Amino acid sequence: MSEDFRRQGYLSEHEIEIKTLEGINEFLETLGRSLKEFHLSSVPMNLFDSDKFTKEYNHERKIEVSEADLLSIEKLNDDQRHAFNIITEKIYSSSSGTYFIDGPGGSGKTFLYRALLADVRSRGYIALAVATSGVAAALLPGGRTAHSRFKIPIDIDGKTKCKISKQTTLAKLLLSAKLIIWDEISMARRQIIEALDDILQDLTDCDNPFGGKVVVFGGDYRQIAPVVVGGKKEDTIDASFASSLLSRNV
């Protein structure tokens, strides 16, 4: 890896060392680890930790808020406006809250999500947008798949954990977030939603649901259910977010 940076021709040996260690650290972060665990006290980790966080933070803050999305706030129907007001009141009073936006395709869920994201981001705050599938994530400005954003492993079981340690830049970003929106939650297995709850409680040192964050879920239980390979009907029902104790707080 260091040779790749050396071939660029304009970096000093010290900069090559830092860039190489940064690349190794980024790989370790995907495993929920960090170079700090290896007692490399002489390595100026704070240099690229701080720089990387600043880049990620600024990237989220610079997500374009379109005029159309801002104007959509005034075009919300009565039900959307009611939900918008309740959610934003929680956000700007620094309160906690977990919400579920239910509705079939074409009912305006995405329209509401975009209005919420636009409102929060236009005020300079961090709002994270994810979806269970890549197709749905692409409809949200700055959208990512939940697996990508929250470092959720592919293999899911009752012990599934998000691979995020407190030392990572992603942990700092989650702590900074005023709002988290997760679309197509009805397709997600409850274990990964519970994993997000666990990591947010751990990062915030708060035992409120999702660490006291404002989290908005959306989906349609009338459509695609969670996939349980080789499972029976009761396994699919058990895998649903509706079967999670967390759903009682929504």
TrEMBL record:
Residues of the DNA helicase Pif1-like DEAD-box helicase domain: 75-246
Residue ranges of the TM segments: none
Cofactor names: Mg(2+)
InterPro entries the record matches: DNA_helicase_pif1-like_DEAD, P-loop_NTPase
EC numbers, comma separated: 5.6.2.3
Swiss-Prot/TrEMBL keywords: ATP-binding, DNA damage, DNA recombination, DNA repair, Helicase, Hydrolase, Nucleotide-binding
Name this polypeptide is given: ATP-dependent DNA helicase
Organism whose genome encodes this protein: Sesamum radiatum (Black benniseed)
Source taxonomy: Eukaryota, Viridiplantae, Streptophyta, Embryophyta, Tracheophyta
